[in-house]
């Protein structure tokens, strides 16, 4: 039985139907190392130097949208409330699920839609949103300073025409007038830790014991004019005597009453109390921090050692970012 004679040899078959490479005139020359680069890049593939956007074809550039680690410094693209017709296209361009984009715009709040490693990439993404009729702003991680805690307060003394903030573990005080108080943010800090003992045998790890601890603490952040980091009140260590006869037994309820008292003291201040409702939406870009740390080997019996680990999760950095963001979107 003979084989068909209409088959072409492998070397005679076409490899590609069209030219997918960039033409020589489309390539971008790096000003630092003088090497040629594809016009879709934001920086030189050889030396890493950044290109000016005007040097490349903006229509061909595709931002990488690499998910940054929590410790990396980046730039956040904050969208304004909108109802864009091109939600599916936005979800595709920003590498998000359509449902996540829907929740973002339906929240009616200014929230992050991307966190990227360079201001240039953020500006390109801002241009993409502008084509869909969505306004946005860029806020850097340095401006949000999520790793720098607010100044903690021990007490507040309300007077006839102003108030005095008493700093925690400090004898100093700060005098403010009602118009100086700009933003009040309520929320909570959730933290969980699992301390585990793991046994390793024949290349496999098995957990033999675990202890879990969890906490959630309501917090209140206050921003006054000229203070970028703000002040924080927690239920522990704060003197609620400023509430007078309204002071109750439960610290959580006292914190709510203090929020009302501050809002009455400074009626022009912006009150933000929706963090708990927006946690899932924020988590798409500002993830809750999870980490696992080794505590070394622990003797469990004569001649036997087991590995101790601690897995922890915390929304502290996420809340700090959301709280500080409120200053930028007044």
Describe this entry's structure for a reader.
With 330 residues, this protein is an alpha+beta fold. Helix content is 21%, strand content 33%. Strands 6, 7, 8, 9, 10, 11, 12, 13 and 14 form a 9-stranded mixed sheet that branches. Strands 4-3-5 form a 3-stranded antiparallel sheet, with helices on both faces. The chain has a two-stranded antiparallel ribbon with strand order 1-2. A hairpin with a 2-residue loop joins strand 13 and strand 14. Helix 1 crosses helix 2. The longest helix is centred in the C-terminal third of the chain and has 15 residues. The radius of gyration is 27 Å and the shape is globular. It starts with 27 loop residues before the first strand and ends with a helix.
List the helices and strands and how they pair.
Layout: E1 28-29, E2 36-37, E3 75-79, H1 87-93, H2 98-106, E4 111-116, H3 119-131, E5 136-140, H4 141-144, E6 151-158, E7 163-167, E8 173-176, E9 181-201, E10 204-224, E11 231-234, H5 251-265, E12 270-272, H6 275-282, E13 289-301, E14 304-314, H7 316-328
Parallel strand pairs: 6-11, 9-12
Antiparallel strand pairs: 1-2, 3-4, 3-5, 6-7, 7-8, 9-10, 9-14, 10-11, 13-14
Helix pairs in contact: 1-2
List the defining traits of the structure above.
21% helix; nine-stranded mixed beta sheet; 7 helices; 330 residues
> How does the overall form come out from the CA principal axes?
globular
Task: Give the averaged pLDDT, no decimals.
Answer: 88
- Low-pLDDT residue spans: 1-5
Give the SSE string.
Answer: EEEHHEHEHEEEEEEHEHEEH
Helix tally equals 7
Derived structural class: alpha+beta
Share of helix, binned = 10-25%
Strand content: 25-35%
Query: Using DSSP, what is the number of strands?
Result: 14
